[in-house]
Amino acid sequence: MLAATDLIKASLKVGRDFLRPPQNGSNEGVVQRSTPLLVPIRSLGANHRSRIAHHLLSLSAQDRYLRFGYLAQNEHIQRYVDGLNFERDEIFGIYNRKLDLIAMAHLAHAVDKNHQACAEFGVSVLSSARGRGYGARLFERAAMHAANDSISLLFIHALSENAAMLKIARNAGAKVERDGSESEAFLHLPSSTFDSKVTEMIEEQVAQTDYRIKAQAKLFWSFLAEVQEVRRKTIDAQSRSSP
Fold it and tell me: Angle formed by the axes of helices 134-148 and 194-241, to 10°?
């Protein structure tokens, strides 16, 4: 978890590359880069439901299998997205410069009143965004929110072959219990502090600002592309009409 002062310093760097023209094609994000000090992770609401669906539907068959524990078909994913309870649970996401949701996490609060101090964590990262530690960052963000929300136990239910997910849990200090093809990880969370609450508040504000800047940059480059297209067509028309 970053200290509040580090977050403020890092937030000054947010948006530094937003005025750089976006790359064309599907190769953006393929080249592996180190994870920056600050990864803007924002809470997602019901208005992001369609983007959540698009993100999950973009997962490969193997990634769907690891995320849900079974080979989820499109209709299963859509049913899952339609059933998300944004009032009870927390959904966190990471957007790239094109406003594509490249990674997301679901912190599901226990429905049973006898286990209200428990929550389950699930995460998915697009293949083009792997190798940057986004899954671990999302876990840290979810754990901080859970602790601040009086959750004392965070658990993960995953397939035993989901090495990446179990590694995230172990690195966070969780106890992992394996039962054949399935595993469960349990992490006891510390009590919230003033610093953890302030840090979460700053992280959310930085993420919201980051999203707005990305949205404005996307509109700017879309407008510029349209102007350039009109200019190109005008030049072509003049060339064809010239003797």
Answer: 140
